[in-house]
Each structure stands twice: as C-alpha cells, then as structure tokens.
Specification:
The complex is a heterodimer of chains A (about 475) and B (about 280). Chain A contains 19 helices and 16 strands. In chain A, α17 links the parallel β8 and β9. The longest helix of chain A is centred in the C-terminal third of the chain and has 21 residues. In chain A, the strands form 4 sheets. Chain A has a 5-stranded parallel β-sheet. By secondary structure, chain A is an alpha/beta fold. In chain A, α5 runs antiparallel to α6. Chain B has 2 domains: about 90 residues, Elongation Factor Tu (Ef-tu), domain 3 (Beta Barrel); about 160 residues, Rossmann fold (3-Layer(aba) Sandwich), CATH 3.40.50.80. Helices cover about 30% and strands about 30% of the residues of chain B. The longest helix of chain B is centred in the C-terminal third of the chain and has 20 residues. Chain B starts with a strand and ends with a helix. The structure holds flavin-adenine dinucleotide (FAD) (2 copies), iron/sulfur cluster (2 copies) and FE2/S2 (inorganic) cluster (FES). One flavin-adenine dinucleotide binds next to α11, α16, α18 and α19 of chain A.
Chain lengths: ~475, ~280
C-alpha cells in the first residue's frame, strides 16, 4: 500500500489509501463466534470518507439496488455528523447496520465507484456500517413520525429482510401491520443462516425492536399454510398480504448415500448453530454434530458460512468442494479470503458422485470426480464437465450440502390461486410484487430464487408502495 | 406463543398426558398432524403428535414419554405452568377414506396419535380391528378411547401381564394365519415395530401406512434433518409426511439416523437428571 501511495503522487485525491478494516486476531477467530471485522474508529471513518471525490453524477449510486445518496451521507461523515449520516441512509435503506455488513459491495456500489477504475473504491459498505453502529451505540435511533392510523391492516408472511422492510414501510404510512413468522425468532436468514461472526444477532434484534416501536406486531410460531391459510388471513380482516417466505428448501445432490448419518444441509447445520445456539451445548439444549474432516459442497456465501462455522466448532480439516473454479465461486471475495486465512482448504473442479458409509450408517468417504470447464451455459459461466476415469476416494466424516435452495411449497398447497413460475417461485410483477391473487404481493427470494439481502429489501419496499395504493383505493 | 397447562395425568411410568390451552391449534388440527414445542427460552424444538383437540374449549391434548432432557423437562411441568412456545399444526393430515376392513396397530405412546386417526377411519365407515401393545399392563395406554372407536380390540404385552403375551406382530401373524383379510393397515409405534409390521403385511399385499418420528428441527421443510428414503426418493417427514407407505420406507437407515445425536443426548439427559435430584432434595 505504501508503494501505491507513492506511485499516486500526482493524483491528489488518491493519496489516502483505502482504510483497512480492523479485524479480530486470527488465532482468536478460529475459536470464537464473535464478529470478525471490528469496525472503523471515527478517525478512520473520516479519513476514508475524505477519499470520496463527491461526483456530481455519482456512479456508486447506480450500483446500489436501493439508490442510497452515497456522496450525501459520506459528506456528513466528513463533517463528523455521524448520526445525520445514518439518517440520510435510512431515507432509502432501513437496515444499514445489516447491509453495511453483508451486501456484496464489490458487485454493487463499490464496483461502480469511479475511484475503483484506477485504484481502490471508497469503502462505502464499511462507512455505512460505521454510521449505523454509531447511531445505535449512542442510542440515537429515533422513531419516525407515524401518521394517524389509516384503519387498514396488512399481514406480512415471513420475517426475513423482505418482510421486515415491507412491514416498516407500511407502518410508516400509518397502516396496522402484523408479521407472521414460522420460526420462534424473527429475522429469516439473518438469524438462522448468517452466523454471529458475520452478523451479530443483537443487531438484528435491535432492528426488530425498532419495528415493534413503530407499532408492528410480530407473531412468531405461525406457519402460514398450516396455522392459517392466506384466505384465512383475509377472513381475519387483513386488507392485503405480503409474502416474503424466502427460498428455504435445501437442495441435495440426489446421489447414493445422501441420507447417511453425518450428512447435512447447510440450513440444518447453521440453524442448529445460529438459531438454536448449539455452540453453547450443553448449556443450550440443541446439539450439533461436528466431524474431524468436513467437506462443504458448494462455494457460495452459505458454503463459506458453513465452513467457517465448522472451523470454530473444532473440525480438524475443513474442505470446500466445488465443481467450478475460484473465479466462478459465488461467495463474496472477502468471505473466500477470510475462510482461507482461517484454514479452509479449497478443492476446485471436483464433485462427489456417491457417499460411502460404515457399518453404523455414518459417512466415511465420498467418491469424487474431477471436472474441467467446457462451453458457457445459460448463466454465462463455463459448464463443468466430468473427466472420465478421474474418480477417486476422499475420506470425510461429515458432509455439508450448500448447493442452493428451492422454493418451499408448503404455503401454496392451501393457496393454489397464487401462480408460480416453472421453477416453483411466485410469478410476481417485478415492479409491484403483485401476484395472480388479488391483494397478495410477494418479494425477496420466494420471487427471485436465492439472491441478496438488499434485493429482498428493495422488493419489500416496492411492494409496500403498491400495497398502500391498493388498500387506499379499495372500497 | 406460549401454552398454559390445564391438566396433567400420569398414563404410565414416564408417560404424561397434558391438556394445554392453544385455541388456534385446537381449531386447525386434523388427525395425523403434530406440533413442535420448546419448554424454555433456549430450549430444543421437539415434535409431539396431537392425539385429541377440543376446538370449543380451545384445548389440545399431548402425550409425552420421557426419553431425554426435553421430554423430562416437559414432564416436570405442572398444571398452571406455561410451555414456552408451541407451533402447529404441522405435517399433512392422514388421508381418510373407506378402505373396508382396517387394521390399526399401536405400540406404547404410538397409541396416542393412532387414536384420532382410528376415530376418523371409523367415522368414514371402516370396520376397524385394533391391536394395542405395551411392555407391560401399565404401558397399554388409552385403551378405553381406542375401544370406543374400534370394532374389535386385541391387546398384548411383552411380559404377558395383560392380554396376550408377545408383540403386536405376533397377534397380527395369528390373525393373518387364521385367514382374516384386511384392506388397509395403519401402524404407529417404535420404528422397529413398524418395520416388523410392514415386513409381515408386505407378502399379503395389505397397504400399510406408518407415521414416522424422525429427528426434526424446524418442522417446516427448511432443514432436511427429518429426511428419510422412501422408495428411491428422499422425503422430508415434516412436510411430506409424517405418514408414508411403510412398504417403501427404509427403516434401517431411519433408525440409524435417529441415533445420530445419542452421545450428546445422553450427556444432556444425565446432567438434567442430576439437576432434578438436586431440586427434589431442596
Ligand atoms: C447462509 C447464508 C448466507 C448468506 N449470506 C448473504 C450475504 O452475505 N449477503 C447477502 O446479501 N445475502 C446473503 N444471503 C442471502 C440472503 O440472506 C437472502 O437472499 C435473503 O435473506 C432473502 O430474504 P427474504 O426476506 O426473501 O427471505 P428469508 O430471509 O429467507 O426469510 C424468510 C422467512 O420466512 C419464514 N417463512 C417461510 N415460510 C413461512 C410460512 N409458510 N409462514 C410463515 N413464515 C414463513 C422463514 O422462516 C424465514 O424466517 C445468504 C443466505 C444464506 C442462507
Ligand atoms: C411427528 C412426530 C411425532 C411425535 N409424537 C410424539 C408423541 O406424541 N409423544 C412422544 O412422547 N414422543 C413423540 N415423538 C418423539 C419425540 O419428539 C422425541 O421423543 C423427543 O424429541 C425427544 O426429545 P428429548 O430431548 O427428550 O430426548 P433426546 O435426548 O433428544 O432423544 C432421546 C431419544 O429420542 C430420539 N429423538 C431425539 N430427538 C428426536 C426428535 N426431534 N424427534 C424424534 N425423536 C427424537 C432419539 O433417537 C433418542 O433415541 C414424535 C416425533 C415426531 C417426529
Ligand atoms: S445498501 Fe448495499 S449496495 Fe447500497 S450502498 Fe449500502 S452497501 Fe452499497
Ligand atoms: S462514485 Fe465513488 S467517489 Fe464518486 S461519489 Fe460515489 S463513492 Fe464518492
Ligand atoms: S424438520 Fe427441518 S425439514 Fe423437516
């Protein structure tokens, strides 16, 4: 970085290097679930903010799915007005402490930042996180002004980022909002999937308390489709329903031996550890299994979360097994790097073809095959093709599937009038989230398939506007 | 949503019957469904069948057999206490139709979830022959309820202390050898019992349904902890079941999966039994 600084002598604005994120020491990281990045100090934040050249046509904003006024909030940081900066962000994004942590910034706002063309982009995500934390830690979070009640009621199904955002927006318009969540804690993937060391759960809890302070009612332990059907929600007096149930059904490979003991979905493993706090077992009641040699199948964020969680639970060797290469790996670069630092071993161009069990029914090995990259497929990525005769045995005593999820059909069994597309996701209007059923809107992963927190939030917000229109015009 | 305990009764050693207050579940439950509960704030989620409901009173019956920490903590709760939270009803209701002569085979606490199903089968016009089994006399639970909805009841115990001596499978074999014909069979009990029953009915071509009790976490299809092999497919018991065609179920695999957390479970249970001893001393 020093060299870069000297090289950039002439470019005045780039003299200050991108401020690195302070991190928990590596030795400690391998054994604790405490958050890894520690956050900027106010001085660092101001320094980083001063790198922004305040573009008149800011490219960064185009890269942000919810179009946050990025130079606007960065200017306020420069002036030391951190709380005002947080409020500026909240005009567009109600969950900045979460997005600042989990947004794939390198593919969004920071990808389009002009400073990134020649050097390193402004650390927009880290700044966003800094001001949101600052606001929360200084108890400066204030309730927005809520207009007089409209007398309209909206039911939100699912409490992931889509549902939470939709609920917040509708509450701000004066509607009476109830969230129905299947699990015993609200937050969706933010609480059951993404681990504590990446997103502390008290941050999610604070956001939910904030919604409650705005009058949003949260009913956990309600599985819509079973506890109540969508039609019953209308019968109960709700004027509209928003469906944000995510894409939670874990995929397996459908290869021999997949139901041996020691083979899990990432959802099960992460839910046991995060939601059920298995890392505190036996103080908490739910156990998790951890192997000596763990293979995590897949290379997305979920795979990295499962791999890094395995390390923290004490696995001796943790392998990522992926059929393409690092270049195609869907996980954030930062996550791959952190995993690597913590000791995750990457096996590219490799896929299991069957699992082999011992006499007690536990997995003891997998037969794998090597791959090479062929022609690009529909997704534009080069298709992995198995190399004939390259099969070999890899000994493992735990396997975690992180190869994606599908739509869960549970809700639709009792709501056949909600039209689904050929992949089983809801066929919804991309602008409004309107479904084929009048008064029913949908957004987030249940419409797009697994995507990102910020896209789910964007969808929740768009639907909130459309729902407002709908219920205010309904007789 | 918590649920207050209104009534508690010991049905057999370590087997408690509870009536809890849960109006929504009482109203929505159909035979064959179950719920998931947690006893306290950091508690494990455990599934329990719903043997009976009273929609008018808003109450739900549970029968819980103490096998580990969570069922022990549950069975230690008293009338007036609150179960921390309950969610349900979960799973698909039983498919009920008029099959003709129907066999209903229940073992131990499996008799409890069998009861509401048999009640519906009887209502649908089936001639119901029930076989109830337990380790000894005191473990044959809900006999009166089962008699009230069955046309014929056979009882057996492992030690012969009540009814015929032997397993339910022996009684079934006798009936079949005697030339009794059945159009349908439903059986709920320990996995090994269901497996044996399925092996017996298979050669006779009697369609046999079983209700599986795999390990679960969420109960909504999100984790796959509950998966079993049915035919050549992987099924999730919580959303595709809990009832399946028993002749297709891979019971051996399922039983191995049930033992997956045995070490940790024993650890937690032992620690709780210590604590219980401690508490009773004070
Ligand atoms: C392990 C993991 C790591 C990830 N990491 C990142 C990351 O770093 N950055 C990023 O941007 N994205 C990440 N993602 C993706 C991101 O979390 C999702 O795209 C996002 O959470 C989708 O939001 P959602 O609101 O649509 O649904 P979800 O967050 O899935 O929430 C849906 C909620 O609905 C509930 N529900 C389901 N069915 C019902 C029903 N019938 N009745 C009532 N409630 C129901 C569920 O219990 C759940 O709480 C990750 C995902 C996972 C699994
Ligand atoms: C659909 C369904 C309906 C059920 N209905 C009843 C019922 O009506 N009455 C009743 O007494 N029991 C019922 N069970 C079983 C009950 O859920 C378990 O006994 C309970 O979870 C054990 O928890 P524990 O902490 O007390 O014991 P643990 O220490 O967790 O386990 C002790 C033993 O129970 C088995 N077990 C552990 N966890 C589960 C689990 N989540 N589900 C099933 N078995 C498990 C283990 O194999 C072990 O042998 C049902 C299970 C299912 C899936
Ligand atoms: S919400 Fe995400 S994409 Fe938008 S500015 Fe913040 S970190 Fe960047
Ligand atoms: S593009 Fe980069 S430099 Fe320009 S305003 Fe945005 S953050 Fe600042
Ligand atoms: S219990 Fe999680 S999918 Fe069935």
């Amino acid at each position: 970085m020093m060299a870069e600084q000297q090289k950039g002598k002439k470019e005045k604005k780039e003299k200050i290097p991108r401020q690195p994120m302070p991190q928990r020491p590596l030795e400690e990281r391998r054994t604790t679930f405490k958050e890894v990045p520690l956050g900027y100090s106010p001085e660092q934040a101001i320094l980083e903010a001063s790198r922004c050249i305040m573009c008149t046509k800011p490219k960064c904003v185009e890269g942000c799915p919810v179009e946050i006024d990025i130079p606007g909030f960065i200017q306020l940081i420069k002036e030391g007005k951190f709380i005002e900066a947080a409020r500026k962000i909240k005009e567009q994004n109600s969950l900045p402490a979460i997005c600042g942590r989990v947004c794939p910034q390198e593919d969004q706002c920071e990808k389009t930042c002009v400073l990134g063309i020649k050097g390193e982009p402004v650390a927009i995500g880290r700044l966003e996180r800094f001001v949101a934390d600052y606001e929360r830690e200084h108890s400066a979070v204030t309730k927005p002004e809520i207009p007089p009640p409209t007398g309209k009621k909206v039911a939100i199904v699912g409490s992931g980022p889509a549902g939470l955002t939709c609920a917040g927006e509708l509450a701000k318009m004066g509607h009476q909002v109830t969230i129905f969540e299947a699990l015993h804690l609200p937050g969706g993937v933010l609480v059951y999937g993404i681990p504590e060391f990446r997103l502390p759960k008290d941050i999610v809890a604070a956001e939910i308390d904030y919604l409650k302070s705005m009058g949003v009612e949260v009913k956990t332990n309600h599985v819509i489709g079973l506890t109540f059907t969508v039609d019953e929600l209308f019968d109960m007096g709700y004027d509209a329903v928003f469906i944000g149930i995510g894409a939670g059904l874990p995929r397996f490979l459908n290869i021999p031996g997949e139901n041996l003991c020691g083979i899990f979905s990432a959802n099960e493993f992460l839910t046991r550890v995060n939601l059920m706090k298995a890392y505190e077992f036996p103080r908490s009641d739910t156990p998790a299994f951890i192997g000596n040699k763990v293979a995590v199948l897949g290379a997305g964020n979920t795979a990295m979360d499962a791999a890094r969680t395995s390390i923290r639970l004490g696995a001796r060797e943790v392998h990522i097994v992926y059929r393409r290469t690092r270049k195609e790996a869907p996980a954030r670069i930062e996550e791959l790097e952190r995993g690597e630092e913590e000791g995750v071993i990457f096996n590219w161009l490799m896929a299991p073809v069957r699992f082999i069990g011992d006499e007690r029914g536990w997995v003891k090995a997998m037969e794998c095959i090597r791959m090479e990259l062929g022609e690009p497929d529909e997704s534009g990525r080069r298709r992995p093709v198995p190399i004939k005769g390259s099969e070999f045995i890899m000994e493992v005593d735990m396997v975690i599937h992180a190869i994606g999820t599908n739509a869960n059909r549970l809700l639709f069994q009792k709501a056949p009038d909600i039209k689904l597309n050929k992949w089983g996701y809801i066929d919804a209007d991309p602008e409004t989230g309107a479904t084929s059923k009048p008064g029913v809107y949908a957004g987030g992963d249940i419409v797009t398939g697994s995507a990102t927190v910020i896209l789910a939030m964007g969808a929740g917000k768009k639907s909130a506007r459309a729902i407002h229109e709908y219920i205010m015009n309904k007789k | 949503m918590g649920a207050r305990i209104l009534y508690k009764e010991e049905l057999a050693p370590k087997v408690m019957k509870f009536i809890i207050e849960s109006p929504t579940i009482a109203r929505q439950t159909k035979p064959g469904q179950f719920l998931i509960l947690r006893v306290h704030k950091d508690g494990e989620r455990i599934p329990l069948s719903i043997p009976a409901t009273d929609p008018e009173k808003g109450t739900v019956m549970l029968v819980s057999q103490e096998v580990g920490k969570t069922t022990a903590m549950l069975n230690d709760l008293e009338v007036g206490d609150e179960i921390y939270d309950v969610v349900g009803p979960l799973g698909r209701p039983t498919h009920i139709e008029k099959f003709g002569t129907t066999l209903a085979i229940g073992g131990g606490v499996g008799i409890a979830p069998l009861y509401p199903i048999v009640k519906e089968l009887k209502k649908a016009g089936n001639y119901v022959v029930s076989i109830l089994g337990g380790r000894s006399k005191e473990f044959v639970i809900m006999e009166n309820e089962m008699r009230s909805v069955s046309d014929k009841v056979f009882i057996c115990t492992d030690d012969g202390s009540y009814g015929e001596k032997g397993f339910v499978s022996h009684v079934l074999q006798h009936l079949l050898k005697d030339g009794r014909e059945f159009d349908f069979c439903i059986t709920i009990g320990p996995p090994i019992m269901m497996k044996v029953i399925c092996d017996i009915t298979r050669p006779y071509g009697i369609k046999t349904y079983v209700s599986l009790n795999t390990i679960m976490v969420d109960g909504t299809g999100m984790c796959g902890a509950c998966r079993v092999s049915v035919g050549d497919k992987t099924k999730f018991v919580c959303v595709d079941g809990p009832e399946f065609d028993g002749h297709q179920v891979n019971f051996d695999e399922m039983m191995k999966r049930l033992a997956m957390y045995r070490k940790q479970e024993e650890l937690a249970y032992k620690a709780y039994l210590e604590k219980r001893k401690e508490m009773s001393r004070h």
